[in-house]
Amino acid sequence: MTCAPPCTRWARVRTRPCCRNCACRSAPTSTSTAGTRASSFTTTLERVSYDADGFCERNRDVLFTDLIELMQSSEIPFIRALFPENLNADKKGRPTTAGSKIKKQANDLVGTLMKCTPHYIRCIKPNETKKPRDWEESRVKHQVEYLGLKENIRVRRAGYAYRRVFRKFLNRYAILTKESWPTWRGEEKQGVLHLLRSVNMDQDQYQLGHTKLFIKAPESLFLLEETRDRKFDGHARAIQRTWWKYVARKKCVQMREEASDLLLNRKERRRHSLNRNFVGDYLGMDDRPELRQFLAKREKIDFADKVTKYDRRFKSINRDLILTPKCVYLIGREKVKQGPERGLVMEVLKRRIEVEKILAVSLSTMQDDFLILHILCWSACSRPSSSACWPAGLERTGNCRSSSTQRWT
């Protein structure tokens, strides 16, 4: 009894008489490409190509040595020719089986995994459309349930949920105390213990190992994170406060220089006199509620001083001039003629000029301290301008002009 090779048996199946007249088979078409020979058949669905090259090598089964010796001891020369192996040379023991190969590969995989530190990541698929903002709640719940995420969290909470090496813990929370910022000088374990005591964490909430810190409850970790966020917020506010101080100081110096430039080397008398520091509020408005009543509740005062106003007949009248970002106020004093306060001198708002209605501000080129406001005319008033004189001298005139220039230009 002889057994043909698998490739020969497969070739016979191709040409057996029972399939020659079958409706599912058409005449085979042979093609040769790059040293291989393939045949194609037309089935009920489509044309399928088959290639027998290397079929025996891919489907070779394990043959033990005793079976090979049995075949070589046959009296039929053909059978002996099918097994030409030399069993006496290079005896390598028992040949490997499919099971032994799988076992060896599994052992190699386990050995590789034991050398690593695995991190298990559970991926949740939110939808089947592969589009953003498409959330299938039932599908997500099903995955959470059958992936065992709830049980994993329960097991995690039963032990120590947070584990971190001392060095990484110090780098993250060093900002909590001055002793640990920017670097802790000393043993890492003592530094971690110092940080935990600084936030008053209970001793039963953490454990210190040889190289790692173990925190039990997530709330204890949240306490550390909240304290860290407050520290960052406080430092950010300090930086912001310093910056705004710098901006305000720079603006004040700039205004002082601009006021000085208006007077420097331009006065006819005392040309090289020393510069004065202008305060702006020369009336002390914080202690003058009788003047403050004419202004808005939180209106800022840029300049305030006593002036001498001249009317159309060039008659001088004493007034209090107050300059704010929105208006110019002229406040005078009159004697009450009627009522219980008869005979008393009271402050009266003589004029309130909005900044938008001031067209220009003029100063005299002579050695006087006159200031003229050019006001937009309106139907109810025919006085287009108003002039004032500072008894204190030209320095305050320049100060008022510098303050008004910041608002009107």
From TrEMBL:
Domain Myosin motor: 1-229
GO cellular component: cytoplasm; microvillus; myosin complex; plasma membrane
Regions that span the bilayer: none
UniProt keyword terms in alphabetical order: Actin-binding, ATP-binding, Motor protein, Myosin, Nucleotide-binding
Keyword Nucleotide-binding on entry: yes
UniProt region (Actin-binding), positions on chain: 106-128
Xref: Gene3D superfamilies: 1.20.5.4820, 1.20.58.530, Kinesin motor domain
Any one GO BP annotation for this protein: glomerulus development
Keyword check for Zinc: no
MF terms in GO: actin filament binding; ATP binding; microfilament motor activity
Short name of one Pfam family: Myosin_TH1
TH1 domain sequence ranges: 267-409
Family the UniProt entry places it in: Belongs to the TRAFAC class myosin-kinesin ATPase superfamily. Myosin family.
PANTHER family: MYOSIN, UNCONVENTIONAL MYOSIN-IE
Name of the protein in its database record: Myosin motor domain-containing protein
Native source organism of the sequence: Anguilla anguilla
